[in-house]
Recover the amino acids of this structure.
């Protein structure tokens, strides 16, 4: 008889709420009281889920209340504290969540086991890289630049700037360095890797 699968959850696949998302939606500002909905969509743009949030802030702190139904049966309503800290650039304040479970200060909360919490609050949740086999990690170390299409995706983004005032940008030079490193792979290394 086979064993039960013990596939842990991956951080990258969990629904999340970030401070940046709230700021882009203009929900996170000092001295506001907002009652809004947040929606998640699938890859083709259809809404898959939503939650109601209530944001109540003062100048430097506040609360966000999450109100939603989990697994179509369990009603959940709880508050997460919001705090601010001075920017290290000296230009204003940055907002943060305070995880109600771990009390960690963070900018992203993940949904697992019914609650939006800091990722360390969950047992058995790992990053995708942590679940890769040693052999796959070795392959990625040796041939990662060949396997990574994100370099080309980033260079072809709508507002990506290759040049500024006639000079190549730092980001463009970094990406070109990664692309040029692809030409240096020795195919004997590929044969050795296949024999491991």
């Amino acid at each position: 008889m086979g064993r039960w699968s013990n596939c842990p959850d991956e951080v990258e696949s969990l629904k999340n709420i970030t401070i940046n998302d709230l700021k882009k939606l203009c929900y996170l500002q000092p001295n506001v009281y907002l009652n809004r909905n947040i929606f998640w969509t699938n890859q083709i743009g259809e809404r898959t889920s939503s939650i109601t949030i209530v944001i109540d802030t003062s100048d430097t702190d506040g609360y966000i209340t999450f109100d939603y139904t989990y697994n179509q049966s369990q009603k959940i309503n709880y508050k997460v504290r919001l705090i601010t800290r001075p920017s290290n650039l000296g230009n204003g304040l940055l907002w943060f969540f305070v995880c109600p479970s771990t009390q960690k200060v963070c900018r992203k909360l993940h949904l697992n086991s019914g609650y939006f919490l800091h990722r360390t609050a969950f047992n058995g949740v790992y990053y995708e890289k942590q679940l890769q086999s040693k052999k796959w990690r070795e392959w990625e170390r040796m041939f990662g630049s060949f396997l990574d299409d994100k370099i080309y995706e980033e260079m072809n983004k709508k507002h990506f700037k290759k040049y500024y005032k006639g000079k190549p940008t730092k980001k463009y030079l970094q990406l070109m360095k990664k692309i040029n490193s692809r030409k240096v792979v020795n195919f004997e290394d590929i044969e050795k890797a296949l024999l491991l």
